[in-house]
Design goal:
This protein has one domain (7-124). Helices cover 53% and strands 0% of the residues. The protein has helices spanning 7-14, 23-42, 56-77, 86-108, 147-157. Helix 1 (7-14) packs across helix 2, helix 2 (23-42) crosses helix 3 (56-77) and helix 3 (56-77) crosses helix 4 (86-108).
Length: 158
């Protein structure tokens, strides 16, 4: 599967000292998860997956998410290793938050990808404008519990 993160460069630049032979596979898996996540989030506004060469913004978001996901996968795989310090955890958490905020801005139309045409209605994402229920599921009769049912529940608890 093609990913937005160049895993070979990413492994060279991010691989921690003492990483085992599984680390490259973890990076590949994390990059695949990040790419799928980006595509799912941006599908409301753009035609995905993007064709190579990938937009620089998408590559940057993918790199941040890949780092976050790889750290999570590595931590689950080797729980006996010492946990990273608070500063490192805060940096990874900040990178994850930044990537997700960036995606939110792209989907909402507050940011755009240069040279990429919007395919969908970015403003219509996560909205209930114009929504009308077909029938009243939550009628006022449902707001009052049956007294017999309450008595039965109370007697079962005793």
């Amino acid at each position: 599967m093609a990913t937005y993160t160049d895993t070979a460069i990413f492994q060279r630049d991010v691989m921690p000292a003492g990483a085992d032979a599984m680390f490259p596979r973890i990076i590949e898996r994390a990059a695949g998860i990040a790419t799928a996540y980006i595509d799912s989030r941006l599908s409301a506004a753009y035609t995905v997956p993007f064709a190579a060469p990938y937009p620089a913004t998408v590559v940057a978001i993918s790199d941040l998410l890949t780092k976050c996901i790889a750290a999570s996968l590595q931590a689950r795989r080797t729980p006996i290793l010492p946990k990273p310090g608070k500063q490192k955890r805060d940096q990874v958490d900040g990178d994850c938050s930044l990537a997700i905020l960036w995606l939110d801005d792209l989907v909402a139309g507050r940011a755009t990808l240069p040279g990429i045409v919007l395919a969908g209605n970015a403003a219509g994402y996560h909205t209930r404008d114009g929504y009308t229920p077909i029938f009243d599921v939550d009628s006022s009769a449902n707001h009052r519990p049956d007294p017999d049912l309450l008595d039965r529940i109370e007697s079962e608890r005793d």
